[in-house]
Design the sequence.
């Protein structure tokens, strides 16, 4: 882990931590799209019960919400954290102590929420926490816009990958999330994640221990490209992939600039995404029960 941690820190000298490849020296106080240097801001940390069921279990998922983001989603529902960067600065030593405290609270995992832009200090903190007894799974909870090189460096460190697959069209991703080439990048990244950890493994108590869990948020007018996303997952990864097809989209942040997304999704739009998954042979996961029009439940 030490070698890979050092390799991640070196990337910050000419930053290519994500596909934006801003090529700025973040260790000298510069920053690019994510507006972050080499320090970590967190907005909150502790047990969370609103995550996927296999992560929550009986004692909660130990979430650490990192401030800022490498995406600029115009509909972000957590924009105070991701875009306004609300949070407090923590050292790697304090971050390690937070992880150990989360374990002491009985949480089933360390859930790193939006870690992409600050993964070098996170890995350093994980190594420190491991030295002091951290043993619960590490969850990499990201937006899918990842560097393949970085994901390869995380092999053996991350136990559970939980990427969002937001779009299956590059232009749509650029327009709504400021992520050029999103679909081109997310496909090889998902393959690498699956190669490393395989399908999601759930123990007899119902808690996830290892593997890949994919999230997909259904957008109005099919703008997320759900059918193509489900096809890719089933054909290029595995029909046993655990997929959470989410129905909780609502207009937020700056979406008023984009009339096509300025409404909630219709029941028929959500049902179509579920039907696409079933048609491709996907059968694991669940649809969030946040809506009164939920049509199906994967088991």
Sequence:
């Amino acid at each position: 882990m030490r070698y890979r941690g050092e390799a991640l820190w070196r990337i910050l000298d000419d930053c290519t931590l994500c596909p934006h490849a801003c090529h700025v020296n973040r260790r000298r106080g510069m920053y690019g799209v994510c507006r972050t240097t080499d320090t970590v801001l967190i907005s909150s940390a502790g047990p969370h019960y609103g995550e996927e069921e296999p992560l929550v279990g009986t004692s909660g998922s130990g979430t650490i919400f990192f401030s800022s983001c490498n995406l600029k989603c115009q509909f972000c529902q957590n924009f105070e954290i991701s875009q306004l960067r609300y949070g407090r600065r923590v050292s790697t030593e304090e971050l390690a102590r937070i992880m150990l405290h989360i374990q002491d609270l009985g949480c089933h995992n360390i859930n790193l929420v939006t870690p992409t832009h600050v993964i070098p200090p996170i890995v350093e903190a994980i190594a420190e926490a491991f030295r002091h007894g951290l043993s619960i799974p590490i969850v990499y909870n990201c937006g899918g816009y990842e560097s393949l090189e970085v994901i390869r460096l995380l092999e053996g460190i991350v136990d559970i990958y939980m990427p969002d697959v937001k779009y299956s069209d590059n232009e749509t991703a650029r327009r709504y999330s400021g992520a050029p080439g999103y679909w081109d990048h997310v496909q090889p990244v998902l393959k690498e994640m699956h190669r490393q950890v395989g399908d999601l493994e759930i123990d007899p108590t119902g808690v996830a221990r290892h593997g890949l869990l994919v999230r997909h948020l259904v957008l109005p007018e099919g703008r997320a490209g759900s059918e193509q996303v489900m096809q890719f997952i089933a054909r290029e990864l595995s029909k046993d992939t655990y997929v959470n097809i989410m129905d909780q989209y609502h207009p937020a942040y700056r979406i008023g600039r984009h009339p096509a997304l300025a409404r909630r999704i219709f029941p028929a739009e959500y049902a179509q995404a579920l039907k696409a998954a079933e048609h491709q042979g996907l059968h694991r996961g669940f649809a969030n029960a946040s809506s009164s029009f939920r049509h199906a439940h994967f088991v």
Observations:
- Residues 48 and 61 are 5 Å apart (CA to CA).
